[in-house]
Amino acid sequence: MESPEVIVFDVNETLSDMSAMTTRFTDVGAPAHLAALWFAVVLREGFARTVVDDAQPFATIGAEVLREMLEPIDLDRDPEAAVDHILTGFLGLTVHPDVGEGVRSLRSAGLRLVTLSNGAARVAESLLGSAGLRDRFEHLLSVEDAGAWKPDRRAYEYAAGVCGTDLARMLMVAVHPWDLDGAHRAGMSTAWLNRGGGRYPGYAAAPSVEVAALPELAQVLARS
Fold first, then answer.
1. What percent of the chain has pLDDT over 70?
2. What domains, with CATH codes, occur in the chain?
3. Do strands 94-95 and 16-17 pair parallel, antiparallel, or not at all (unpaired)?
């Protein structure tokens, strides 16, 4: 793997610990297990809208999916208030415990750091700002400005254009194999952050690097 110039981070679940979103669902009277299902459906719908060249913001799709999912549930508040309560939960998320050390190590190694999210840039701003890491990142990018959700090639090309570098000099870091597969197909190197010790799917392009925690990535890159 060629030594990267820019490290591109996915945000939701890769940097952010989204386990707190289950509480947002139970707060309004919905079952906790709906949080994971809702997120998966939002991703599916976002991918589908991109395929038909009609990409929509994460919040727009998220709200519509929530309205449908919450409709049969006996909520403790007005449905629109419930939708708002759940969606604003993204602004209160915290980073995973390994993120701070990992980000600081990568930045100290002279690497440029950016984020590229299927969500809004303000979510990354809130997340990294509260963690005291915002100044380590050059850009916080959203696919809303690319016109296509990851894993569409256009999303990664947008990031390369903003950073003024070639896709081949960029390394995509994510917990999601579908994101890494898309980045690979666009011409990027990839790093799978396998916190859970899972198995990478054989149908997706294998990652260039696999690490169990973010601080390991700086060590791996230093040896490359």
1. 100
2. 6-17+93-223 (3.40.50.1000), 18-92 (1.10.150.240)
3. antiparallel
